[in-house]
Amino acid sequence: MKNKIYLKVNTDLTASPKVLSWFEQMNQPAIPDKTIWWQCQTLMMEGFTNIVEHAHRNLPIETPIEIEAVRLDEYIEIRIWSQGEPFDLEQQLQKISEFEENEQERGRGLKIMSAIADKLSYEPTVDHRYCLFISKYY
Q: Which helix (H) or strand (E) holds 134?
């Protein structure tokens, strides 16, 4: 089974409910483990929020964010394309302290994503954008 969906939204956190509602299509038929589905939703929203707040922080609200989700037999893949500055995900993850030591309100999203995703990367693309790639087995 393969289900693929695509969405394009502005760089705007108010699009979050639209993104989450659109992503609900990936849970048809429902993933039996509700915790796994909650983790998939969390990965989608943390990824989207990070692109808006960090990658696109200095870009106009009209800057598009493209999102693709693919459900395969055993896992879901999420790709979020951004147009921001270069960013080294691995280096940033090493810099962020563990949850117990992190008293800050901000900066936990990447650690959360790293902890619950089976694969997580942020790579440049041939068209001079970046792709946040997330994969989660269910």
A: strand 130-137
CA distances from 58 to 11, 62, 63, 125 (A): 10, 12, 10, 20
Show pLDDT as tens, one digit a residue, over the chain (138 residues).
689 999 999 999 999 999 999 999 999 999 999 999 999 999 999 999 999 998 999 999 999 999 999 999 999 999 999 998 777 777 777 776 555 454 555 567 888 999 999 999 999 999 999 999 999 999
C-beta atoms surrounding 117 within 10 Å = 21
Amino acid at 84: G
DSSP 3-state helix, strand, coil percentages of the chain (rounded to 5)? Answer: 40, 30, 35
Q: Which two tokens stand for residue 92?
A: 């940033």
| pTM, rounded to two decimals | 0.90
Cα(5)–Cα(9) distance, integer angstroms: 14
Residue 113, burial from CB neighbour count under 10 angstroms (0-12, 13-18, 19+): buried
